[in-house]
Amino acid sequence: MPTSTNIGQPAASGALFEVAEPFGKNVSGSAVAQRSAAIIEALSAAGGWGNGNAFQIDFSIPIFYADRNTPRMQVVGAEEYCFGGPDCDQVPARMPVPPNAYIEGSSDLTCDPSGNTEGQGDCHLLVVERDEHKLYEIYQGSKRDDAIAAVGFFVWDLNKSYPETLRGDQCTSADAAGFPIAALLPTADEVASGAVNHPLRFILPNSHMREGVYVRPATHAGGPQNSDPNAPPYGVWFRLRADFDESKYSKSEKVILKALKTYGMLLSDGGEIPLTFADDRTNTAKWSSLGIKADSFNHIGVDQFDVVELGPDIPLTYECVRNP
User: Fold this and answer.
1) At 126, which helix (H) or strand (E)?
2) Are 10 and 189 in contact (CB under 8 A)?
3) Single pTM value for the model
4) What is the count of structural domains for the chain?
């Protein structure tokens, strides 16, 4: 077990949350939604995945692991904290931050949330505290003096069985759909172990997502802009078709394909690169040694997926009502 002076290590495989969650289901046996073909067709007509319609991987978000001995840092609200809403947890607060932690897109705890620096903008910081059974997630964070100033700060209880409205209906999280990001990111160590036992996170351009609504298990949406009633809404659950031909893929790539067939993937945010895998600098295994590259799955089209677990549209109001 690593000491708190090193980047901690996760379990080799298994879901991050320790109890069943609405966003963690095995959907391998779920029926194909009645509107599945229409949603897939609409997404294809809008340009598919975006980014040249490549099912590409972004490896930029790290997950750090901590314990009771890990140093704590104060988290304070940046200007426009939580955009004035109740969605976020109260600040100032304290969270574990391993000494060698860094923020998404950066090599340290500083980050440019303006988006003017290449690779920066969302500036996520994700820390799993194993002894507390807590997940800390920051949106648009950057070190300021001896604290981290954040636009959003969110704490998840890994032992809690969340209701279908998660932290609250119409409430965001460090991801626009209201999900815990770390729970949906496959890690190199998971793949090396031979199993990814949770759904994956995927994102689409805002112009490809249905405006004004979301579906469960999401509790929120960002800025979707597509007026087509069949465009995929935030929270939509895609599952790779069981008959998808895996024969040309490597052993490690097949671990990801199995996860997509078993647990699927959840539409979580807006952007141009559809898949997000955890930065491997916090893992023993490395994506390069596993043979998984940014373009490993580029040629998998949207037509290779079905929509499952599709609930009714929920009108987007941005009026967050937090759960106790």
Assistant:
1) strand 125-129
2) yes
3) 0.94
4) 1
Distance CA 212, CA 194 (A): 39
The answer as to whether 263 is a domain residue is yes
Q: What is the pLDDT of residues 149-167, one digit of tens each?
A: 999 999 999 999 999 999 9
pLDDT one-digit tens code per residue, 88-113: 999 999 999 999 999 999 999 999 99
**N-term to C-term CA, the chain:** 34
Does residue 130 form part of some domain?
yes
Strand pairing class (147-157; 72-77): parallel
**Cα→Cα distances 267→70, 93, 248, 260, 307, Å:** 33, 30, 27, 13, 11
Q: Domain range holding 316? A: 36-322
Scored b (16 or more CB within 10 A) or e, 241-257 reads eeeeeeeebeebbebbb
Residue 280 lies in a domain: yes
22 domain residue, yes or no = no
* Amino acid letter, 23: F
